[in-house]
Amino acid sequence: MSAPNPTTKFPLANYDRLCFLKNIITNPNIEVGDYTYYDDFETVENFEKNVRYHFDFVGDKLIIGKFCMIASDVKFIMNGANHLTDAFSTFPFAIFGEDWAGAMEGRAYPRKGNLIVGNDVWIGYNATIMAGITVGDGAIIATNATVVKDVAPYTIVGGNPAREIRKRFSDDTIEKLLALKWWDRDIDWITSNVQALTGRNFDDLT
Ligand SMILES: CC(C)(COP(=O)(O)OP(=O)(O)OC[C@H]1O[C@@H](n2cnc3c(N)ncnc32)[C@H](O)[C@@H]1OP(=O)(O)O)[C@@H](O)C(=O)NCCC(=O)NCCS
After folding, report:
1. Cα separation values, 159 from 42, 50, 140, 205, Å
2. Which of 41, 85, 86, 134 is the most interior residue, by most CB within 10 Å?
3. How does pLDDT run across 84-142, given as a tens digit for each residue?
4. What's the total number of domains in the chain?
5. What is the rounded average pLDDT of the residues 19-32?
6. Does residue 187 lie in a domain region?
7. Beta-strand pair 155-158/140-141
8. Which of 149, 110, 155, 154 is nearest to 133 (CA)?
């Protein structure tokens, strides 16, 4: 049995705008699972540029699972983007120094935690996902969505702010899929089940 090699940078012949994403990541605070791919209209180098406000001194992580599909212009807004929202002014006086340097004494910018995308998640063109969000396994993020709340597994969300459009399957099927975790099976099992995984009959899985 043979499967595509997840360490291949560009898995499509003669096409360098789609990559198995983990192979182009240089930032140690971005983790990506096997087979997750990124497709960009111009160059796949745009992926890390679109992980915005991601500063080493903050140390927050973007963690993306396996077998995700990420479209062009998808943006991840990390914690370095946050200003104070509960102060009289949101202006970051302290960063400009001089006698403003102490403005943040005893205060800290809001940190919402790591941004986590599960497995088998499809993120549509130009979607934006905010810091601290967890997107569940099997979710779909619609084109142009702005995701500001966690997305439950196997749920389609869209709009700004993104709202649930619908669940992809019945609760019973979602439970079975979450127990199966097909993306963690060995690659030969996945390979022998690609047709069943591309269908919707649970009993076809071996
Ligand atoms: C989310 C998506 C998968 C839904 O597809 P679908 O199941 O065929 O959905 P429908 O077109 O039947 O629309 C279902 C509902 O979602 C809404 N909807 C669809 N796309 C939406 C979007 N991008 N933003 C907000 N709402 C959206 C529709 O208005 C409709 O609402 P209603 O039920 O109130 O009438 C699809 O619209 C989408 O955004 N796909 C991503 C495409 C993409 O960016 N691909 C990148 C290359 S891989």
Report:
1. 25, 19, 12, 34
2. 134
3. 999 999 999 999 999 999 999 999 999 999 999 999 999 999 999 999 999 999 999 99
4. 1
5. 98
6. no
7. parallel
8. 149
